[in-house]
Amino acid sequence: MNRFAALLWLAFFSGMTWAAAPDAADDVSVRVEIQDGVVRIEAEAIIPASAREVWDVLTDFENLPRFISNITASKVLARHGNVVRVAQSGKGGFGPFTFEFQSVRELTLNPVEGFESRMVEGNMKRFRGITRLESAAGATRIRYQSEAVPDTVLPLGLARSTIESETREHYLEIGREVLRRKAAASGK
Questions:
Q1: CA distances (Å), 125 to each of 73, 98, 116, 121, 173, in order?
Q2: What crossing angle do the helices spanning 4-13 and 160-185 adopt, rounded to 10°?
Q3: Which domains does the chain have, with CATH numbers?
Q4: 3-state secondary structure of 130
Q5: Beta strands in 48-173 (DSSP E)
Q6: 47-76: buried (b, 16+ CB within 10 Å) or exposed (e) per residue?
Q7: The whole model's pTM is what?
Q8: Residue of 48, 46, 18, 64 lying closest to 170 (CA atoms)
């Protein structure tokens, strides 16, 4: 497995956005900070849906491959109270290179408010992330922060724009799925 996959895993399973509605790329902004081998991502997105509707998509682990383009498999391995262990794999790319990535994450859920995530297996040295949901004038704001140490020898600075664009796309796909489900539920 390509070691660079760990770095792009950050972009696929985490993200940062400050936004209004995930229908246009301008509505999702991403900030990535890379310093001393540590990649920090912060995200905020506002989706015009209830916190429950957003929560249901974010925690629909088994169906993520249906609406997130770079995830090829996602499976819940175990559930114990509010702790869920999820295995995921997918494919990514950087320039002319493509590769597969894998991870097992443990998520501590606080229903409809957020969750904390940490990698327990995979191709990173360390990963921790926090996702929070907040009411925002008839919508829901997703706030995300992560910190990771990829297992790569490649210069991390070269991957910043890829992490940013993949993270942005990740949240746009989540927003589209929330709105698709919302419309289906209301019969539109």
A1: 22, 21, 18, 9, 27
A2: 30
A3: 4-185 (3.30.530.20)
A4: strand
A5: 71-80, 83-94, 97-110, 114-122, 124-135, 140-150
A6: bbbbbebbbbbbbebeebbebbebbeebee
A7: 0.83
A8: 64
Residue 78 CA from chain centroid, whole number: 20
Q: What is the pLDDT along the chain (188 residues), one digit of tens a residue?
A: 333 344 444 444 443 332 333 343 446 788 999 888 898 999 899 999 999 999 999 999 999 999 999 899 999 999 999 999 999 998 876 666 666 788 999 999 999 999 999 999 998 889 999 999 999 888 999 999 999 988 776 666 667 888 888 888 889 999 999 999 999 999 86
Task: Give yes or no for a contact between 156 and 125, defined as CB atoms under 8 angstroms apart.
Answer: no
Residue where the block lists tokens 């409809």: 112
DSSP structural state of residue 98: E
- H or E element: which one contains 160? helix 160-185
